[in-house]
Amino acid sequence: MTTPSFQHVLIIGATSGIGDHLARTYHAQGKKVIATGRRAERLAKLKEECPGIATYQFDVTDSFALEKSVKQILKENTNIDTVVMMSGIGGIDIFPEGVDQQAITSQVNTNVIAPMILARVLVPIFKTIETPTNIIFITSGLGYIPLSLWPIYAATKAAVHTFALVLRQQVAETPINIIEIIPPYIDTEFDAHAREKMLKILPNARKPTPLDEYMEDTIKKLEERVDGKPLKEISFGFASMGHKAWRGAFDPIFDQLGISSA
Ligand SMILES: NC(=O)c1ccc[n+]([C@@H]2O[C@H](COP(=O)([O-])OP(=O)(O)OC[C@H]3O[C@@H](n4cnc5c(N)ncnc54)[C@H](OP(=O)(O)O)[C@@H]3O)[C@@H](O)[C@H]2O)c1
């Protein structure tokens, strides 16, 4: 069955950057959008500027709130066909003196544990739906090409890449699509607190890709279908180098093992 374009989309982490852009674009395209985040004033602004968008406020690192909120949202919006796990944090972590325990636990809780809890909530619910549904995880080029300043962040995104890949194999016989978006360095608030520090250490660091340019490409790729299904992974620029190298190396291994769903 051909997957319809995502029509009713829950975006977890839509108060800024990539999630905010996706929410506004999908709303402008006439799709039904539900946006979440911690910052109430940003959610209120989104609602005011995009009439019809529904918003919910919760912190994804509170596992109980995440599970309860997502179940509640799905109960109140039974037509949701796509959930995007956008929320993520990162920082420059130079071991040992530049890293406190909080940096480790908050990145792992936000970037790894929350997507896993979300999947645990979503999969049984989506399995009861006969039409195609989509669970979208956001990793990073750094999950494929780990670089020196981001040991914790790169590891969290590599973990989610592996998790998404294995989850896709587990739901292969269902209409659930597991999609991984792999952004390169994008100009958002994401690293606003760390950009100055990065440029001091790496004065010749790559410039971030403008958000509009990145989103135009990514939203187009989200509409692409192969054999009626969305792309398994969507990457851009620097991230594509790592993604393509990984697929080039691992597809023959999965073929040999007979795992076409990976
Ligand atoms: N920008 C980049 O260079 C880049 C590169 C590769 C991958 N990524 C990934 O892309 C995703 C989006 O990043 P972005 O660039 O758009 O950054 P951003 O502008 O900082 O947006 C992050 C979003 O995540 C939400 N969030 C963070 N922690 C949360 C929590 N504990 N509970 C609920 N929501 C939380 C934020 O909402 P509140 O603060 O309101 O909670 C915000 O909506 C992230 O997963 C990031 O790792 C970004």
TrEMBL record:
Domain of life: Eukaryota
GO cellular component labels: membrane
InterPro entries in alphabetical order: NAD(P)-bd_dom_sf, Sc_DH/Rdtase_CS, SDR_fam
PROSITE patterns listed in its UniProt record: ADH_SHORT (PS00061)
Record's keyword terms, sorted: NADP, Oxidoreductase
Pfam family, one: adh_short
GO molecular function, one term: oxidoreductase activity
UniProt function note: Putative oxidoreductase.
Family of the protein in this entry: Belongs to the short-chain dehydrogenases/reductases (SDR) family.
Protein name per its UniProtKB record: Uncharacterized protein
Organism placement in taxonomy: Eukaryota, Fungi, Dikarya, Ascomycota, Pezizomycotina
